[in-house]
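Annotated sample (chain length 289).
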Amino acid sequence: METRANYVLIGAFTLAVIAAAFGFVLWFQSLHTTKQRSPLRVIFEGPASGLRNGGNVNFNGIRIGEVVSVKLDNPRRVVALAMIENNAPLRKDTLVGLEFQGLTGVAAISLKGGEEAAPPVPLDEDGIPVLTADPNALQDVTEAIRATLQNVNRIVADNQQSVKNSLKNLEVFTEALARNSEKIDNVMVKVDGVMAKADNLMLGLNAIAGGNNGSELNLMVKSIRELADNVDKRTNLLINDGRRTLADISRAVNNFDRNPSRVIFGGSNNAAPEPAPAPAAAPGPRRRQ
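Output written by the structure step:
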């Protein structure tokens, strides 16, 4: 019994130490968070559409905190309480407004600018810093949204006839496609046939080039080479024959020039013999040196 009681005490002590450690961590974290952030009250003199609990608080586009509560102070004023970082450079002249992620996004409190030498944010009655949103900024956001919607509506209205014509042309084109669906099918069938023939042609070329390890292509190349060699030999023979023929013609022309009657009437005994060449002169006696 004593051993079992010791085990119970040891287990209870261990659980107590673990719980105390968790409690200390949570307390330290909450204390650290409390020291890092401080409350800020923002007053909107008018509607604050889209502002929700958990919304962002941005300073010059950088998130510095979040909204923790939104409530109505009176029918014309909305009060939002936010927790922001202590190192945020807020000043009395910091501009406050709303910014949206798109036309239907959740609103966020937007803090902008402020002179570095300006005084700090004034404190409310309970000691919480308070800033009042600029009504003109809120009106600018609303007017921007309205202007955008009006521009979209104006574009649609100005191009109403063009939109109608485009839809009508699309309808006519669709009807033409429906009427000529059979022709289109026939054209597609012909295209498929042409593609099939092209595939067969490519397969045939592939078979010639690579079938049987390229033997058909080698035979074809060899035949073309032999044909070229034969043509070359025959061409050389024709050239040689032509040269001999030209030599005979040239010889006949020379004979005609020397004795045209012989060439025309043939050889004759009465023809005067060609004069013999004159004998060369005999050399004279040499002088003795």
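Annotation: Residues 215-258 form the longest helix (44 residues).
Annotation: Helices lie at 2-36, 135-158, 160-179, 181-210, 215-258, 260-265.
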